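Hi, here's the filled form for the chain we discussed.

Project: internal
Contact: R.S.
Residues: 434
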Amino acid sequence: MRFIDSVFTSLSLSREQVIPITSVTSATAASSLTGFIASVLAAKYLGSEGFGIFSLALSVAILVGAIGDFGFNLTMIRLFNKYQAKPEKQTMVLGVAFGFKTILLTFIALTCLPISGLLALSLGGGPTDSELFAIALITGGLLFFWTYLQSYLQSYRSYGKLSGYILGYAGLRMACLVVAYLLNPENPLAWLIGAYTMPLAVLIFVGVIPKGLEVAPIVLKQPGASFGVLEEMLKYSKWVALSAITYIAMPYLIRFILAIHASIADVGIFSAGMTFTMAFTVFHTAVRAIIFPQVTALEGIDQMRKYLNRLNEIAPYYAVVAALVIIALGLLQWFVLGEEYRAALPVFAVTVIAFAIATFLGLGTMLVHTMMKPEIDAFTNVARLCLMVILALLLVPSLGALGGAIAYVIPLIIGELLMFWIVRKEITKEVNIL
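And the returned structure, exactly as it came back:
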């Protein structure tokens, strides 16, 4: 508790801000825990090869979700803040994003069957896995509506409702996972539908469709103005999309390279290590959901400089807590996954330390969006992805899953350090000018 209090005090967060952070953090922790449990159980019951093909299908779903988002979620929040004095324009921003995603989901639904067959064959699966990849493509379409709902609520700063939906997602996943386990625990498709597809479908029916019907009329009544908003969103989101897609693609592209240049079992080992690494990011994900809208609303260099100074104050506390969490997760992986996945421990060690560093630096590099310079993020992530592919092609054939982990984390850390340096340089330059 003293650590949390110190964090909130150093960031100058009021009680009104602390409560939603705690709420969203708790809800995100519950949701992430269900995803973590799903991955661990899938790893145990599917074995390394079965978990490998499951991880490949999940990678396809997440990449489709990232591409379908096209940077609109962060752009929604940014433009929503921009038009604080124009409620009708804010509604149009939300409506245009909803319409864009609806068109994309329709396209995915029409093309998923032929594409899934090609994916199954090219990634080392068999013809029987085409159904798995078809559902993965549809799941990806559902994912970018789930992120739309979260961004919608963040835009209005409805953190209580956001926490409720996240908890609802966690509860639905647990219920569907029980059904999947009872029906067919050795089938990757059952785990994919139980952990992601079915819970997302329910949430979208309950949460997204009603909100979409509310914002759609203003878009249809003013098509000219809507196209203007779409043009503005695309102008900004092209950089956000390029950044988000390349960043999100990195760990999943590693899985594809492992499948082609190593083995499906190596995909499973890499994914098992990454499962415990991703558990480390729960607090960061929740805090970012609260902090990002506020950081992008900062005005002036002085406020941004003060924000960075506050991050420096909490750095020692973060380092201690991060070390304790890493040790606990390492012990948990050792005892839970057993002998078959001991090779995943080096993958976990390499990736979790890198994530710990990148997570903290990421709180500072959010300022590129406050500065309205998303191209910095985009160019950095493109360079990261290119470097990662080169390193992976060199290391994976000889080192397998560990080589994939090393290839992933080197560009991750270099990119985050570079962006943090650029942010500080830009702020210092502006201060000197003033």
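Let me know if anything looks off before we file it.
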